[in-house]
Amino acid sequence: MLYGRKNEQVRLEGLLAAAARGASAALVVRGEPGIGKTALLDHAVTLAAGARVLRGQGIEAEGELPFAGLHLLLHPVLGKAEELPGPQRRALTGAFGLTASEQRAEPLFVGLAVLSLLSELAERGPLLCVVDDAQWLDRGSAEALLFAARRMRAEGIVVLFAARGPRDAFPGQGLEELHLDALPPQDAARLLDRSGQELPAALRDHVLAVARGNPLALLELPTAMAQGAADGQQLAGPPEGTPPLTDRLRHAFGGRLDALPAPTRTLLLLAAAEHHGDLDLVVRAAALLGAGPADFAPAERAELVRVAGQSVVFRHPLVRAAAYRQASYGDRLTAHRALADALAGPEATEAGATGSVVSGSDVADRRAWHLAAATHGQDETAAAALQTAAERARARGGYAAAAAAQAYAARLTPDSGRRTHRLAVAAATAAEAGAFDQARDLAEQALAHADDPALRARLLQVRATADFGGGALRDANVHMVEGAALAADHDPSQALTMTLEAVHIAWFIEDGGVRPRTARQVAACPIPSGHPLVPVAALLQRLVSVWEGRSETVPPFAEVVRDAQEALADEPRGLVLVSAAMLAGAQDEELYELASTLVSLGRAHGRIGWLPPALSYLTAAQFALGRPRAALDSASEALRLSHDTGQTQWTGQLNAVLAVMAAAAGDGERCRALAAQALDGTPAPNIGGAHWALGLLALGEGRAAEALPHLEALAEGPERYLAHSTRSIPDLVEAAVRVGETYSAKRAFTRLRDWARWAQQPAADALVMRCRALLSTGEEAEKYYSEALELHERAPRPYEEARTRLVYGEWLRRDRRKAEAGVQLRAAQRAFDRLDAEPWSRRARTELGATGISAPDQPPVGVLSSLTPQESQIVRMAARGLSNKEIAARLFLSPRTVGHHLYKAYPKLNVSSRTQLPAVVPADDRRGT
């Protein structure tokens, strides 16, 4: 029976009842030790009558073993993994070391496999997953489970986590939380009175005061305090500075441990150090120290442990902590050595070979960690064992576990050169794991002792990667340039690769010396003639020429980009910079193809970390090519994944892109909210993108005077070299012309003209012609409008073409050529309607009315406009003929969630099945990745 938890019980009942109806939910239960988290999880299991239940827990000693917590949860159902799609099955079994994996799986892709597996299990009825002590989950398990839990919608699954300690130990971002507070006084008293202990009134009051509503304290402190009173200690309320309740409980358990015989304490120390509850291992290790199974009896009678089947289970984690911490340092070393020796025996090898839960590699990993814990000072044998464990973890995709093992191995390494090398490897692995603070610290430790220039260059690259991942973009550029300079003499390819990354970083941050320093490194990069990366060096030189005010045109920029793309065909990170170059050079069709390919590869191979940048560039291409709905879907997915993967440096850019799209659609409230988020973006705000969005919104609503300052701030600000700055110049020219700021318009036009000469793309030339027309009069203006439209025909950009037709139609109406104006204005209005560009459509209708031509009061709504971004994305894929499972694999959802979104979308589209979707979804909207 639970006391004082009625509201919490009702909440759990509601979640389980909803699961029976097909809904899913995830909840993190938080609270201090002993507050009743485990009891509440047990209550949920009792409530889940008729549901399948999977139970797991984080184990402190397994925090460095890759996917150990996930394996504990899923091992009863791993046979169902055979039903998963091939890449997911290989990722999951490879993560557990059950099969050799062709490539290292990201924890988030393992999370997709978990989602699919749980969804399959839930096909047969509701499923409850319970994970206790989530704060001790290894990082890979935590990331995979959180990724899966955040994507559950309509599978009939409930996932409950219980966690204590600092929030960053188990962040649980994106999940609902339930915080357990102390029991109310009345319920605390009821629990104490029903515990079966007869207490004098004074002692009872004292227990209630000290326990402060903590259920475990209410059950455990009476015995300790009664013993203290018998020993003559005074009873008093908790004074100021009294130890935390956790320490008091641990001390109370410690007193009970002290009363046990020495062999029993040895057994409990071994069990506490072992942490897996592996009875056979504990008994084998105990035999080496003179203890045996019979010595468990006193601890069992004291209800400190329970021995059942093949497991030793402590009553509470605090009992385990007390058993371990009360032992002397020497005794702890001896215990770990005995466990390591027991794991080296034939019994352990046989268990690893035949057991279904513990693999042979797991046995070796556990032995390596016990050897490390048994070592005082440095020891190469222990270090080498940990290094081997790290290599196994890395091969399974357990980057965080591998980094921890490598760092510990470095600490144990006697040879200074080998120690520095192991620190460097650990730093690089931590960066791959996204543990950027750890990567930075390890790299700094290694740099302090690294003399070899090649090693220092690699460490500076790791340091730069960690800085970039943590949002310190300027520091990232400084370290990348420094490392590239070091690598120049011995490894030109590495130097160029680092210079490539330095340029990419410099493109996104304010100047302040960053770009000149990077430009000098580009000029100094030693790529010999005939080297396969010569085209990459040429691309960098052309990009840097923009910063230096040189508009080189030979060879054509598109040719330089194409050659670099071919040279970097097998380097996705390098292709991200190629994507940026394509965006800067108005190569929208080529950008669409490259970004689509990167997105498809990321989905197919589980490289989820590739997707935020690839989807960001795909968004830009889709929007430029007149596919705003697809662009909205891509940007929304990229924003979700940037949070999932910890790549928050993309959030400012994505919020700015979404704000610009909202401005084009005339959604002022959403535009302003997203612009504010872009300005506040952590760690990398997108100030220029926010200004463009707010300027475009005002211009579309006819408030040119309000638009002009925003657009000028972008054109003259530190982001003036970025693609969104050059692409906003036509808006600046139009706003300046409308308010009579001719000088501002001409100055902006000069920049646009120089950019177009550099890009050599008809789409860019069309914008130049439109702006020339806005700055001209009479026949000259008409000539430029006509040339702009001809260029639009060669390189269709529906939104920009409609903008050209709108201003041309306005010019024709002012010239009293109403019939000709009507032709342009009708075409503009139809295009704006198709693009859901409501303010611009309204302007075209207003102009049509001024010509005396009637126009519809309301534009037709796009077929997908009523859908959410995720519904739209799913509908477009279903219209192309993809199954729910195929869509789920691409979007990292469960098939049942895909079905849920489809059934919600059908009524909005006035259809009843997926077979009708191709008829209602336009062909252009069915394109995508």
Output the strand order for the largest sheet.
2-3-4-1-5
First and last CA, distance: 53 Å
Beta-strand content:
under 5%
Major beta sheet, specifics?
Answer: 5 strands, parallel
| Uncertain parts | 230-243, 351-358
Give the tally of β-strands.
Answer: 7
Helical residues, percent: 55-70%
Provide the residue-averaged pLDDT: 88
Return the structural class: mainly alpha
What's the tally of helices? 47
Q: Please compute the radius of gyration using only Cα atoms.
A: 33 Å
Overall form: globular
Structure overview:
There is one protein chain. The protein is mainly α and about 950 residues long. Helix content is about 65%, strand content about 5%. The longest helix is centred in the middle third of the chain and has 18 residues, at about 415-435. Residues about 230-245 and about 350-360 have low confidence and may be disordered.
Offer a concise description of the structure.
With 929 residues, the chain is mostly helical. It has 47 helices and 7 strands.
Please write out the topology.
Blueprint: H1 6-20, E1 25-30, H2 37-47, E2 52-57, H3 68-74, H4 86-95, H5 107-122, E3 127-132, H6 139-150, E4 157-163, E5 176-179, H7 185-193, H8 201-211, H9 215-230, H10 245-258, H11 262-274, H12 279-288, H13 297-301, E6 305-308, E7 311-314, H14 317-325, H15 329-343, H16 346-354, H17 360-373, H18 380-395, H19 399-412, H20 416-433, H21 436-447, H22 453-469, H23 473-487, H24 492-506, H25 514-524, H26 534-547, H27 557-567, H28 572-584, H29 588-605, H30 611-624, H31 628-644, H32 651-665, H33 668-679, H34 687-700, H35 704-716, H36 723-738, H37 742-759, H38 762-774, H39 778-794, H40 798-814, H41 818-834, H42 838-850, H43 869-879, H44 884-891, H45 895-909, H46 917-920, H47 923-926
Parallel strand pairs: 1-4, 1-5, 2-3, 3-4
Antiparallel strand pairs: 6-7
Helix pairs in contact: 1-2, 3-6, 4-5, 5-6, 8-9, 9-10, 10-14, 11-12, 11-14, 11-15, 12-15, 15-17, 16-17, 17-18, 18-19, 19-20, 20-21, 20-22, 21-22, 22-23, 23-24, 23-25, 24-25, 24-26, 24-28, 25-26, 26-27, 27-28, 28-29, 28-30, 29-30, 30-31, 30-32, 31-32, 31-43, 32-33, 32-34, 33-34, 34-35, 34-36, ...
